[in-house]
Specification:
With about 290 residues, the protein is α/β, with parallel strands linked by helices. It is built from 9 helices and 14 strands. The protein has a single domain, classed as NAD(P)-binding Rossmann-like Domain (Rossmann fold). The strands form 5 sheets. A 6-stranded parallel sheet has the order 2-1-3-4-6-11, sandwiched between helices. Strands 5-14 form a two-stranded parallel sheet. Strands 7-10 form a two-stranded parallel ribbon. α5 crosses α7 and α7 crosses α9.
Length: about 290
């Protein structure tokens, strides 16, 4: 018989947090889902008191590291609180700790060298957690998309709804990774960490890298099943102003450590995109 356990999910109102909450509830896992503004995560006494009251075995922080999300101070508060209460912290991180290099695939053993301020913020958050808490997992993920919020999929749909011609770069590389797949990985990690000390840093992204141009082609093809789009064609054009709406090429992450440690294989992004677009359009009809 499996031992019951309890989760606290921080950021339950964002794409990954919502997906973790829904999947955990479907598995009948005991949890408290905390929205991003429910707690003052900068106050160590208040955070520690709330965690002591709820008594989770794991805290999953789905709020990504950035100035408006998980700051270095918040990371320190969470890790110190978890250490004091003998709880484990699972922190969502990102591939921003690396600078994109053509053809390069980054493993957990590669030294982070962020070139952007956002990347430096991510690395600082990771460092704060490592220095304060042994029982932690840092899960770096790829280019995130989901069924909610104004993300890159939403931007592509808006362009396709309002422009006859899309001009997008076929040299801007990305590794689309769905919030639902990330949520499944987080829960699988938690389940195995209940029985083994597998703490550390891991990478997860989709199984197939692509370009902005090719990703847009798939998004438009899928969306045409649900609505008539104005767009007539998509052209590969690296000089188009439309490219400025999207992030630059993102580093691809190696995922072998996650596979060898937890048996988790990366999933193709196309299937997840199909499910997510269906969910978006069904939500509009309700």
């Amino acid at each position: 018989m499996k031992t019951p356990f309890h989760l606290v999910i921080l950021g339950a109102d964002n794409p990954v947090g919502r997906a973790v909450t829904e999947q955990a509830q479907a598995k009948e896992i005991s949890l408290h889902a905390i929205h991003s503004t429910d707690w003052d995560l900068t106050d160590v006494a208040k955070v520690q008191a709330r965690l002591k009251e709820l008594a989770p075995q794991f805290v999953i922080n789905c709020i990504l590291p950035n100035e408006a999300g998980t700051t270095v101070h918040i990371a320190s508060v969470l890790s110190q609180s978890c250490a004091a209460l003998n709880m484990a912290l699972i922190q969502l991180s990102s591939n921003d700790v690396f600078a994109y290099q053509d053809g390069e695939i980054f493993s957990e053993n590669d030294e982070p060298e962020p070139k952007t301020e956002s990347g430096k913020q991510v690395l600082a958050v990771e460092t704060a957690i490592r220095s304060s808490l042994e029982r932690h997992i840092l899960l770096r993920v790829g280019w995130l998309f989901s069924s909610q919020g104004h993300d890159e999929v939403s931007k592509l749909l808006e362009l396709a709804q309002n422009n006859e011609h899309l001009k997008l770069s076929d040299s801007k590389f990305l590794c689309p990774t769905s919030a639902c797949d990330i949520a499944a990985v987080l829960l699988a990690i938690v389940n195995q960490c209940r029985y083994s000390s597998l703490w550390g840093t891991y990478h997860y992204c989709s199984a197939e890298a692509t370009t902005l141009f090719k990703f847009a082609e798939v998004v438009v093809a899928e969306a045409r099943q649900y609505e008539d789009l104005i767009v007539e064609d998509i052209v590969a054009d690296a000089s188009s102003e439309m490219n400025g709406l999207f992030a630059e090429s993102t580093p691809k992450l190696a995922t072998k450590k996650l596979l060898y440690t937890f048996g988790i294989k990366p999933k193709p992004w196309r299937q997840a995109l199909s499910r997510i677009l269906k969910k978006r359009y069904l939500a509009k009809k309700q």
